User: Which sequence fits this backbone?
């Protein structure tokens, strides 16, 4: 039996121009719009997803950390970090959340799967010093060093022991996705390329009995955005981001699929209700 459960690790707020980029605006224009925008969306969850599978426990993304509140943790020279507000209490980090479920993150998570390396998906890595850390090779390549810091990553805050198992999308096509990468031997947990939010972004497909869970990371911020064909303000490639949204909808049209983005307030309720994407 395979199960998927949502774990909230605090809240994030973003500008309205980040959640939805203006149609017709390119990469630079969308960034300018975010800086000019005076309106904030409601606090959004920072979600991770725990997959319990016959081959082990797998965690998709790690959320963020309370250390965002420590002066100097975020690079003060980077104005982007003033356009996003992260609020995480220590007990809201993924480690304490798992401990509350009776799972020791240091020893009882077989693998952590990262959809990408943005700080609100890697902030909880410290809790998993003995787990496999699986991440997309293409996204890791653009997440290190100064380039990574300029694009929403905090490589200088990654654990010193981090040596991720970097994977390429070199497996067969899956529906509208041109490639894939299996994670489990039975192939029921697999990665597919979902670029657009950032280069090399991946989503995690989990095939259960009669239902498929699509753990979208930030390929879309919400199911509503997906259905409306609305890409975000972060993307450097709006056309690719839109193509990814279309591919997700095409995939969901072929098999019953529950969509689970990392910042969708409705995702946990859909998961609990088994509500598939129509």
Assistant:
């Amino acid at each position: 039996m395979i199960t998927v459960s949502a774990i909230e690790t605090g809240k994030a707020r973003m500008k309205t121009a980040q959640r939805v980029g203006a149609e017709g605006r390119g990469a630079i224009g969308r960034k300018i719009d975010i800086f000019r925008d005076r309106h904030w969306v409601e606090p959004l969850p920072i979600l991770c997803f725990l997959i319990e599978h016959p081959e082990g426990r797998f965690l998709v993304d790690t959320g963020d950390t309370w250390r965002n509140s420590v002066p100097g943790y975020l690079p003060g020279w980077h104005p982007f970090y003033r356009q996003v507000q992260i609020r995480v209490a220590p007990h809201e980090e993924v480690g304490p959340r798992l401990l509350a479920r009776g799972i020791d993150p240091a020893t009882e998570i077989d693998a952590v799967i990262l959809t990408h390396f943005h700080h609100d998906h890697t902030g909880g890595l410290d809790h998993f010093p003995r787990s496999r850390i699986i991440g997309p090779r293409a996204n890791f390549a653009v997440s290190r060093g100064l380039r990574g810091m300029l694009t929403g990553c905090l490589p200088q805050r990654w654990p010193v022991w981090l040596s991720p198992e970097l994977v390429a999308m070199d497996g067969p096509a899956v529906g509208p996705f041109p490639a894939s990468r299996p994670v489990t031997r039975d192939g029921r947990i697999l990665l597919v390329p979902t670029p657009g939010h950032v280069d090399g972004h991946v989503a995690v497909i989990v095939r259960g009995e009669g239902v498929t869970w699509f753990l979208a990371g930030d390929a879309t911020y919400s199911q509503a955005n997906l259905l409306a064909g609305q890409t975000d303000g972060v993307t450097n490639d709006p056309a690719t981001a839109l193509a990814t949204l279309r591919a997700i909808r095409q995939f969901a049209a072929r098999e019953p699929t529950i969509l689970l983005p990392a910042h969708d307030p409705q995702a946990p309720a859909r998961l609990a209700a088994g509500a598939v994407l129509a």
Notes: The domain at 3-273 is CATH 3.60.15.10 (Metallo-beta-lactamase; Chain A).
